[in-house]
TrEMBL record:
Keywords: Oxidoreductase, Thiamine pyrophosphate. Its EC number is 1.2.4.2. Its cofactor is thiamine diphosphate. It is an enzyme of class 1 (oxidoreductase). The keyword RNA-binding does not apply. It comes from the Bacteria. Belongs to the alpha-ketoglutarate dehydrogenase family. Residues 600-793 form the Transketolase-like pyrimidine-binding domain. This is 2-oxoglutarate dehydrogenase E1 component.
Length: 946
């Protein structure tokens, strides 16, 4: 057996860590007399490394010793002399079984843990937790065995002691799942933490009284709201009150580790309680929301979707806490919060993630059922999206709305099984045991700090009321709610426990509840460590970006010399980097473009926009599935050395003190990735944050993010975002899934100047619009229908002068047909312009003008009016699009165009030219595509005499 294989065996077997001494004893016996050990061990030792075909006792023993020293073995016991009876074959056999029993408890003890406060959870007996399964029996209980890897504090113990320790550790009110982790170091760390205190640590009396105080607050708020606003929806925390001391502990512990910010995300269950009792929202404000009063100048949202931020004091100093806004789409807030957390870490130049800690709260049914959870876990350790680990809390009500856990809510044993895909530890904890809850919370934050990975806390509790306070839950869960009616609250049980143990007296416990009620009645803040005059340096400064309207201009042109200088840097590849042949040609062309010897194509203009922004101090972040190269091979912002695969980014070397340029090929996700970038943009107002779809059509996989956050977040919650979306769009015969970015959907969502929707058609236009988005202080999302086919079209080029002296034009006028001669005007957007232009040139038509509307929302009424006013001899005006009639811009924009036309040419009617309405976005056959395209081009350019 090769030495590496031996180490793998030792690390992956039951005989690692503390068992090393025992195995060494066996090996010493084997060296003296192989017959004294069992056949299994003899076979293993026979396979150890040999010297010249023979086992060398000195060399082989040294090899074993070296491996066990590497594995951190404890001091070996004195080795009995051969034949002394210190180890006999039967005892040795049972010792092996004891180690297997220990391993079984580590693997499956959670399946026998007492997790359900209601006692309704039915658990099948686990065979390999029984003595008989391992060839042991009650007669062995008083026999002394090596404790092996079990952290008992002593090397030997009776089997009874070992079993008692295992039962207490793994089958109590905490069920630990961690043996699915492949890292030996992590498993050893977790096992030591569990077993050293039997998952039952002792706390100081004051700490436990404080836990009771937090439970009192959690229960007190729900009771107060129920009495003051009976029958009003609030999605209360009743049954899961242990969440409040758990969160309090996590924030406290994070502060001890030096965290400066904690970002949180959660759905509606318990949100009001968290807002008041953790973040310190004034109860008076909450009561005003219950009474329907308008508190902010937005359309608003229901009270259990609202976010909040505040500062609290911890042992490590002041910590800023932020709870993200959340729609009813439950888990969709999670990647948004993670994105915000990453932006905060980047702002603090913290690649490890020690200063900003994400905490995500989930419902059990949503955690198991919604795919964005998987996507969020999958991004957790990737370069573009890692944050040093998130602490996940599942508020496990054991029922999803009215869906029973046992039968219909999932196919997995636990709602948390999805977390195993990233080898996250999972701690199931009984919510009615606050001591266990606190142990799990502290261990979770310790693990995150130690390993920088996600961890899951499954808070098994119940829902005292229905899905909301207007539901009658016994209609669908009669047995559960019959049990709940008789079940004391968590606070009641914990208070009784503390009184019984002499930690507190009953009167003090009662006074605690009365004092909290009095605080609520007086409208006082109820968070004990709330900072009233917070450190503003912990906040993101949005002041420069507030109060700016759509007409705010930005100087996007640059001196020609500066453009050339940046262009030369973009095209420079250091010596020693072997560039792939086609890429080398692209970079050769870029050098010519930078010098003015060639017109600029799309890719060069786009990179010039990024480079010029970086030089001016604006950071740029660009992610998507193929953004480094570009799906259509136009960008090549990353040069891959053909010698060793290393990457070189010219944009990272524009200026000596430039801000960050981040470009990452994302994993194959739209929903979570777009949500992440939206969250990032809401916390990083300066510069550009861009998400590019592989094909624009794929944005529909993130429709929830677009609907609930990007297009409505400002109006509902007052959340500004400068996110830019690049969505490749254009009908080129590639079928229904590779043609349309669903322009019509974005336009349908446009209202109250919420987003920008543009279809730039020249390299100069993409240069100026990207620069405008960063430089202009107004922050609203920008949706760009970006090209595919015209990336290299011979007519889709620009000059350096157009970049230097121009700006983004919302309307591009005709420059080849004289206005006085034009009798027909074609209005269009996007790629169809080039089809019309080429056909007009081919047919030598000189009386049909083509005007491009480059920004469809906010609609450029003034600019279009100024252009149309030049054409005094028009007989007809037509809108031409390549999308089917029920798609594209026609239905959403025709009223804007008609309003302008009514002012400039009152007698004219706007007509439609394009494909007829279609259920599918585009034809899947090239021949059909070309026939349809030729038909509408012919209709658009038909003789004006006709």
């Amino acid at each position: 057996m090769p030495e590496g294989a031996l180490e793998h065996f030792l690390r992956s077997s039951h005989f690692s860590g503390g068992n090393a001494a025992y195995v060494e004893d066996l090996y010493d016996l084997y060296l003296h007399d192989p017959a004294t050990v069992s056949p299994e061990w003899r076979s293993f030792f026979d396979s150890l490394p040999r010297v010249d075909g023979n086992i060398s006792p000195d060399v082989s023993h040294a090899t074993v010793v070296k491996h066990f020293e590497l594995l951190g073995r404890r001091q070996a016991r004195p080795i009995p002399a051969p034949g002394s009876g210190g180890i006999n074959n039967e005892h040795e056999r049972k010792q092996v079984k004891v180690v297997q029993l220990i391993s079984s408890y580590r693997f499956r003890g959670h399946q026998q843990a007492k997790l359900d406060p209601l006692g309704l959870m039915v658990r099948d007996q686990v065979p390999d937790l029984q003595l008989a399964f391992h060839g042991l029996n009650e007669a062995d209980l008083d026999t002394t065995f090596q404790a092996g890897p079990l952290y008992l504090g002593k090397p030997e113990a009776t089997l009874r002691e070992i079993v008692d320790a295992l039962e207490a550790t793994y089958c109590g009110n905490i069920g630990a799942e961690f043996m699915h982790i492949t890292s030996f170091e992590e498993k050893q760390w977790l096992a030591q933490r569990f077993e050293s205190v039997r998952c039952q640590p002792s706390y100081e009396g004051d700490a436990r009284v404080d836990v009771l105080r937090r439970l009192t607050a959690a229960e007190g708020l729900e009771k107060h709201l129920d009495s003051k606003y009976p029958g009003t929806k609030r999605f209360g925390l009743e049954g899961g009150e242990s969440l409040i001391p758990m969160l309090d502990c996590l924030v406290w512990r994070a502060g001890e580790y030096g965290a400066k910010e904690v970002v949180m995300g959660m759905a509606h269950r318990g949100r009001l309680n968290v807002l008041v009792n953790i973040l310190g929202k004034n109860p008076t404000e909450l009561f005003s929301e219950f009474e329907g009063k308008r508190l902010v100048n937005t359309s608003g949202d229901v009270k259990y979707h609202q976010g909040f931020s505040s500062n609290v004091m911890t042992p490590g100093g002041e910590v800023h806490m932020s709870l993200g806004f959340n729609p009813s789409h439950l888990e969709i807030a999670c990647p948004v919060v993670i994105g915000s957390g990453r932006a905060r870490q980047d702002r603090r130049d913290d690649p490890v993630g020690n200063t900003v800690v994400p905490i995500l709260m989930h419902g059990d049914a949503a955690f198991a059922g919604q795919g964005v959870v998987m996507e969020t876990f999958q991004m957790s350790q990737t370069r573009a999206y890692r944050t040093g680990g998130s602490v996940h809390i599942v508020i496990n009500n054991q029922v999803g709305f009215t869906t029973n856990r046992q039968d219909d809510a999932r196919s997995t044993e636990y709602c948390t099984d999805i977390a195993k895909m990233v080898q996250a530890p999972i701690l199931h904890v009984n919510g009615d045991n606050p001591d266990a809850v606190m142990f799990a919370a502290m261990l979770a934050m310790d693990y995150r700090h130690e390993f920088g990975k996600d961890i899951v806390l499954d808070l098994v509790c119940y829902r005292r009321r229905g899905h909301n306070e207007t539901d009658e839950p016994s209609a669908t869960q009669p047995l559960m709610y019959e049990r709940i009616k008789k079940h004391p609250t968590t606070r009641t049980l914990y208070a009784e426990k503390l009184v019984k143990e002499g930690v507190i007296d009953q009167q003090s416990a009662d006074d605690m509840a009365a004092a909290y009620r009095a605080q609520l009645d007086r409208g006082e803040f109820v968070v004990h460590n709330l900072v009233r005059e917070p450190d503003t340096s912990l906040f993101v400064d949005w002041a420069p970006y507030l109060g700016h309207g759509w007409r705010t201009e930005a100087q996007t042109g640059l001196p020609l010399t500066e453009l050339k200088e940046i262009g030369a840097q973009l095209a420079h590849v250091p010596d020693g980097i072997q560039v792939q042949r086609q890429v080398s040609k692209i970079y050769d062309d870029r050098r010519k473009m930078a010098g003015g010897a060639m017109p600029l194509n799309w890719g060069m203009a786009e990179l010039l926009a990024y480079g010029s922004l970086l030089k001016a101090g604006y950071p740029v972040r660009l992610t998507g599935q193929d953004v480094g190269r570009g799906t259509f091979s136009h960008r090549h912002a990353v040069v891959h050395n053909q010698k060793d695969g290393s990457a070189y980014l010219p944009l990272a070397h524009i200026a000596a003190e430039q801000p960050s340029f981040e470009i990452y090929d994302s994993f194959l996700s739209e929903e979570a990735v777009l949500a992440f970038e939206y969250g990032y943009s809401t916390t990083a107002p300066k510069g550009l944050v861009i998400w590019e779809a592989q094909f624009g059509d794929f944005a529909n996989g993130a429709q929830v993010v677009i609907d609930q956050f990007i297009t409505s977040g400002e109006h509902k919650w007052g959340r500004l975002s400068g996110l830019t979306m690049l969505l490749p769009h254009g009908f080129e015969g590639q079928g229904p899934e590779h043609s349309s970015a669903r322009l019509e959907r974005f336009l349908q969502l446009c209202a109250e100047h919420n987003i920008q929707v543009a279809i730039p058609t020249t390299p100069a236009q993409i240069f100026h619009i990207l620069r405008r988005q960063a430089i202009r202080p107004m922050r609203r999302p920008l949706v760009i229908m970006s090209p595919k086919w015209i990336l290299r079209h011979k007519l889709a080029t620009s000059s350096l002068d157009e970049l230097a002296d121009g700006r983004f034009e919302t309307v591009l006028d005709e420059h080849q047909v004289e206005p006085a001669k034009a009798v027909r005007l074609l209005l269009c957007s996007g790629k169809v312009y080039y089809h019309l232009l080429e056909a007009r040139q081919e047919r030598e038509i000189d009386d049909i003008a083509i005007v491009r509307i480059e920004q469809l929302y906010p609609f450029p009424d003034r600019e279009l009016k100024a252009v149309l006013a030049k054409y005094s001899h028009l007989r007809d005006v037509r809108w031409c699009q390549e999308e089917p009639m029920n798609q594209g811009a026609w239905y959403s924009s025709q009223h804007h165009m008609r309003n302008v036309l009514r002012k400039t040419h009152p007698g004219l009617v706007l007509d439609y030219v394009g494909r007829k309405a279609s259920a599918a976005p585009a034809a899947g056959y090239m021949s059909v595509h070309l026939e349809e395209q030729q038909a509408f081009i012919d209709a658009a350019l038909a003789s004006t005499a006709e």
